[in-house]
Automatic annotation (TrEMBL):
Function: Conjugation of reduced glutathione to a wide number of exogenous and endogenous hydrophobic electrophiles.
InterPro entries: Glutathione-S-Trfase_C-like, Glutathione-S-Trfase_C_sf, Glutathione_S-Trfase, Glutathione_S-Trfase_N, GST_C, GST_superfamily, Thioredoxin-like_sf
Name of the protein this chain belongs to: glutathione transferase
Lineage: Eukaryota, Metazoa, Ecdysozoa, Nematoda, Chromadorea
Gene Ontology molecular function: any one: glutathione transferase activity
Organism name: Pristionchus pacificus
Catalysis performed (reactions): RX + glutathione = an S-substituted glutathione + a halide anion + H(+)
Any single Gene Ontology cellular-component annotation: cytoplasm
Family assignment from sequence similarity: Belongs to the GST superfamily. Sigma family.
Extent of the signal sequence: none
EC code(s) of this entry: 2.5.1.18
GO biological process: glutathione metabolic process
Keywords: Transferase
Domain of life: Eukaryota
Keyword Transferase: yes
C-alpha cells in the first residue's frame, strides 16, 4: 500500500510537479485521476474545494505549491542552503504570478474556452512573456555554469515547475520563447535527466 495518495484530474496540470518529485525520489504513490463526474461528488470533501490534494498519514494537504514544497523538503529537492530554499520559493511564487496571468490565454489556445487565439496571444501571452522571460533568461545565464539549473547546482522543484509549464506553453505556441535560448537550453537539460525522461516517456499524453 502506498503511503502517498495524490488526487487530481486526468492531465498534468497542477499535479505534475508533485508526481515528478515522487517518481524521482523512487517513492510509490497512488496516482488518482478523477473524471468531472467523480470530482463533483468529492469537491465538498476537500479542504478548499480544489485539486490537487495529497493524502498521507491520515493528513490532507491542498494547494499545488504547498504540496510541491512539502514533497521537495521531504525528498531533497530544495537546494543546499536556507537561501537556496528561499530563492526557490521566490522564483516559484513569481512564476505562479505569471502563470495565473497567462492561463486565460492558454485556455483559449487549448480550446478549453472559446475565444480569439490571435488576440489572446497578442494581448496576454506576449506582454506577460516580455515581463518575465528577460529576467528568467538572466537567471538561467547566471546559473548555466552550475549544471544547467535555475537555482544552485542540483535539481530543485522549481526546475520541474518551470520545465513542465513551458512544455504546455510551447505546445500551444511553438517559437514563443525563441528569444530566450538559455531558458530553453536549461529546460531541455532538465527534461533530459534520465529518470525524468523515463517518467515523461511513460506518462499519459496531455496538452496541459
Amino acid at each position: 500500500m502506498s503511503l502517498y495518495k495524490l488526487t487530481y484530474f486526468d492531465m498534468r496540470g497542477r499535479a505534475e510537479v508533485a508526481r515528478q518529485i515522487l517518481h524521482l525520489a523512487g517513492v510509490p504513490f497512488e496516482d488518482v485521476r478523477l473524471s468531472e463526474e467523480k470530482w463533483a461528488g468529492l469537491k465538498n470533501k476537500t479542504p478548499y474545494g480544489q485539486l490537487p490534494i495529497l493524502e498521507f498519514r491520515g493528513k490532507v494537504l491542498a494547494q499545488s505549491n504547498a504540496i510541491n514544497r512539502y514533497l521537495a523538503n521531504e525528498f531533497g529537492f530544495v537546494g543546499k542552503s536556507a537561501f537556496d530554499k528561499a530563492y526557490i520559493d521566490s522564483l516559484a511564487d513569481q512564476f505562479k504570478d505569471y502563470l495565473n496571468k497567462v492561463e486565460p490565454a492558454l485556455w483559449v489556445l487549448l480550446e478549453y474556452e472559446k475565444g480569439d487565439s490571435a488576440k489572446v496571444v497578442k494581448e496576454i501571452a506576449i506582454p506577460e512573456r516580455d515581463k518575465l522571460f528577460p529576467i528568467l533568461e538572466k537567471i538561467a545565464k547566471a546559473k548555466s555554469k552550475n549544471g544547467g539549473y535555475f537555482v544552485g547546482d542540483s535539481l530543485t522543484w522549481v526546475d520541474l515547475l518551470i520545465a513542465d509549464t513551458l512544455t504546455t506553453l510551447l505546445g500551444c505556441m511553438p517559437g514563443h520563447l525563441d528569444g530566450f535560448p538559455t531558458v530553453l537550453n536549461t529546460v531541455n537539460n532538465i527534461n533530459a535527466i534520465p529518470e525524468l525522461k523515463k517518467w515523461i516517456k511513460k506518462r499519459a499524453d496531455s496538452t496541459y
